[in-house]
Structures are given as structure tokens and as C-alpha cells.
Amino acid sequence: MITEPEKKMLDLERQWWKYAGAKDEAISDALQMSAVAYYQALNRLIDTEAALAHDPMLVKRLRRQRDARHRARATRR
Question: Is the pLDDT at 44 greater than 70, yes or no?
Fold first, then answer.
């Protein structure tokens, strides 16, 4: 089971483009946290089985995107 703040994080990640302005602003406005703290928490969250059970399509997409970024960084080295 995920917490209410974790649900809000996943909801924001699913719909951030609907908010006016930059994603960092949406994070700050909706969750009252910095972008850095948000992304650290999001990366921990998407590794949990509870998040996967809550929204499998979103979590799998976020994991794929993260893995692609990691592969791209490794390739540049």
C-alpha cells in the first residue's frame, strides 16, 4: 500500500504536463518539495512493489525511462 503523498507523486508524474509552467514549478506547488527531493523520492518509489501494484503502466514507463538515461550516461563515458 502506498501513502497519500506517494499517490500524489505518481499522479503528478502521470499528469505534470497539464500544469501551467515548468515541471519544477508543478512539483513545488503540488507537493511543497524541491525538484531534487522529488526525483530522489520518485526513484525510490518506483522501485517498490506497492507503486507497481498501484499503477503498473506508469511505474514500468518510469523505470524504462530511468534505465534509458542510465544507459545513455554509461555510453558517453
Answer: yes
